[in-house]
Structure formats: C-alpha cells, structure tokens
Amino acid sequence: MIIVLKPNPTAEQLAHVLERIEELGFTPHLSQGVSRTIIGVIGDEEKLQAEPLQAIEGVEAVLPILKPFKLASREFHAAPSVFDVKGIRIGSGHLAMIAGPCAIEGEERLFEIAEAVRDAGANILRGGAFKPRTSPYSFQGMGEEGLKILKAAGERFGMVTVTEVMDPRQVDLVDRYADMVQIGARNMQNFELLKEVGRTRKPVLLKRGMSATVKDLLMAAEYVLSQGNTQVVLCERGVRTFEDSTRNMLDLSSVPNVQGQSHLPIIVDPSHATGRPDLIPAMARAAVAAGADGVHVEVHNCPEKALSDGPQALLPRQFAALMEDLRHLAAVLGRTIDSSAEVAV
Fold it and tell me: Is the pLDDT higher at 20 or at 178?
C-alpha cells in the first residue's frame, strides 16, 4: 500500500503518519521527491483496508499495490532509479560496464586484467574471491586474500569493484573490501543472505536464478529492499532450458519486462548466459539495444590457464573491440558510460 501525502506536508504531519503506521504493526518506507512525499507500507494490505488512514491530517490518498513486490514496483517509485557508486552512475541511461575475471587468481594477473579493461572503457571491475562451484574439488576462490587484491586493484586503477558473497557470515568481510556486493544466481533465493545484505548500505548486484521467473527475481530484490538497502541492480544471466548449444538461454525480453514493472536498473551478463566467447559481443550489443542498463562480461588475459570459467572469457583485445561497438551504440541511443577516471577512490 502507498500513502500519498499532500504537497508540502509539515514535519509534524509526516511524523504522525509514520508513527501511526508503526503503531498498526507495519513497516513504513519513506520516499521524498521534489514535489511529492509518498510512504510505502509493508504488510498485509487486507488488514490495513479497515483503517481510515486517509483521514489522517496531511494524507491525500491511500493506494493499494496489487503486485506482490512493493518496494521494487513502479507504483512505489514511478521514475527509473539511478544509483551512484563512487561516481559511476547506473540506471536511467547510465550504463554500467562491468568486466574482469571470473575468479581472482593473484595480484599480478588481476592488475594486468584491470588495467586492460579500464583502458578499454570498463568502469566496474569484477572478480570472485568466493566461488560457488559444482564440484567441491574445484577452485573455491582465495577468500579474504582475494578481497584484499581486488580492493588494491580498484584503488590502483580507479575502478569501482564488485564481488560475490555466498554466505551471511561473509557479508561483513566482503562489505569491508568491495564497493558492490554480488548475489549470484545460485543464491538468488537464499533469503537469509538477501536479508543480511539488505542490512548493509552497499549497492547490490542481484543475478537472476537459473530457473527463476521475472517475478521471482523481483521478489528476491524485495527482500533486500525491505531491510532498508534501496540500491539493487538486477542482472539477467540466462535461464535453463532444453537448448544445449549454449550454457543457458539468454532472456533479453526480461529487460523491458522488468523495466515495465520495476524502477530498479537491470544489466545483462552475456558471458554466463551463452558460455561462448563468439556469442558474447552480439548478445552484449543486443542487450544495450534492448534497453539494458549495462553489461557484465568476463575477461581474462590467458583463458586457458584460468582457474574458473576460462572458456567463456573474452581476451582483453576482444573486450576492447566490444567496448568500441558499445560506445557507438550508446551514443546512438542517447546513453552515457561514465569513465572510471571519475571514480572517487
């Protein structure tokens, strides 16, 4: 449910509305714009219908939200959200260009890749310190040592950093080192992890689960938003189907589908979606053309020696060529790619 206040409510009126919502056992979420103040009320709407909330002084309208996701909905926040991560804007025409290796393998390797993708135009550096692997015997990541290397690379090359967290017990650790926290596809419905990340104030990159619907993805985002963290960037990375010539099936329709229902930015990961370097450039271009707020591409300078997902990584020169295409495409579509040189380290 949304409570719309009359223009220019007094501080006393606003405080009274918030107090009354809490008295009824519900959680208010305040959104103050230039001309309007609205309050999202989280809870069972049927119980609220019996309450004469519109009679409260300063209230103009009380509107139900029919979708199960409240805070992520367009009803709660009509305009597309734009998040600023240390000078890099994401959403509403500002494109996040995320690139880097699947896993952090050492300082020298990551520094070389970071410099290459930055010079090519990437504005966010990715690299996994904790890796969810199908086999328990596969490389699981460098842990905190990897996080230290990622932070050092971000500072050295002036880039925002993002890395995956897999367990609620890791959240504080990752929060200390990274600028953005990634929730991977396998953990999209790890609700305790979502709530824990929601209690931080770091921007969250939330990937769509392998068998998740768009509604499932938005409900997962709702878990994070409900804990007070308003900065959630969604990521389409393909879903499982009967097709076996690609790693997953990239659902590009999810981009306008999400944007029609939610104010949250959505980017596309063609690397995990296709699993094939020959398809990544075309799908990245298609993603930006479809309206995506950025792309997420794995890049490695020696894929045959990569400890994780080497076969789906682009070489630095291939990524540079892709970025040249995306810059031209962004210009045609009236989009902006913030430079990593503007990052406040």
Answer: 178
